[in-house]
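Project standup — Tuesday

K.O.: blocked on the structure for the chain from last sprint. Re-posting the sequence here as requested.
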Amino acid sequence: MLFITNRPLQEGPDTVPGRKVHFKLDNNSAEQSVYFCRRDAQDDYTEIGSQAFMQAIKDSSAAQILIYIHGYSNLPEPNIFPRAEILQKMANKECIDSVLVIPIIWPCDNDLGVIKDYYDDEIAADSSGVAFARVLEKFLAWREKPEQIETPCLKRINLLSHSMGNRVFRQTLVEWATYFRGGELPLIFRNTFLVAADIVNESLEYGQEGRYICDCSRNVSVYFASDDLALRASKVANLKNAVASRRLGHTGPENLDQTPRNVYAIDCDDLNTLYDNPTGHSYFLYAPGGRTPGVVFKHICNSINTGRVDADETTRRLILKAKPPRRTV
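H.V.: unblocked you, prediction finished:
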């Protein structure tokens, strides 16, 4: 599995393609260096460098890419990579085109204590923006090389960000626009899926920092649930910083009419706790029983398959319903 990270490595920041690398899990500093790597097995990682990384994507049999940005308090093992593997398995089952899942790993804290972790991870999320903006700029520079223009990479790029990963994504685009792109961003993502987003619910409105998410995406699907207990804790934690606004992953966009027309609000209130009991936060994976993709991921795959969002075109809204359990005699 290919992955990108700005977590500190035990081997130091100097890129050496082919070297084995190990995470410094007790260090959650957000490095400005980024590492393009491959996971060969659990706890077995090889740095391959940006050029080999992008060429590996181009050479892969996948027709589409799904970038996955994880939420807060997640470590590479046993959280991020196993979840990325689940996404890969579900995509293999549900998507018409072959899909390559690529996780982006930012430096979550390794301390005990939920609130302390939360504050530390907020800082790490914001501080990671410049590093991952450099990744996007490296991709455009690679894509514009003469040999790539001659035989272009035609893969479609989709992105799924979960929980505080949405903060990482938002800040990445802010830094990319500010430092590299003169305030304007190109259309680069076919679909962007914001799941249980731990950012304020006005973020996607005109004039807000999250507008860049809409600018660089064909479709933006916001999956939310009012009884997401993890986001309730997030709202309480943010009161320390005098941020009292509700979270995007709780309510969906505060005022959908104030967002661009490519934003869709997907209400998951009827199934989130059924899929992730009791917190109702990670409801985009398997259905209950852990064997088949859930309704949320099937909705995501439909967008990957068609390039369109299954929602009312006028209201830009949809209420997802969990399928009732099969009756047994």
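K.O.: great, moving the ticket to review. Residues 61-319 form a domain with the Rossmann fold fold (CATH 3.40.50). The two ends are 43 Å apart (CA to CA).
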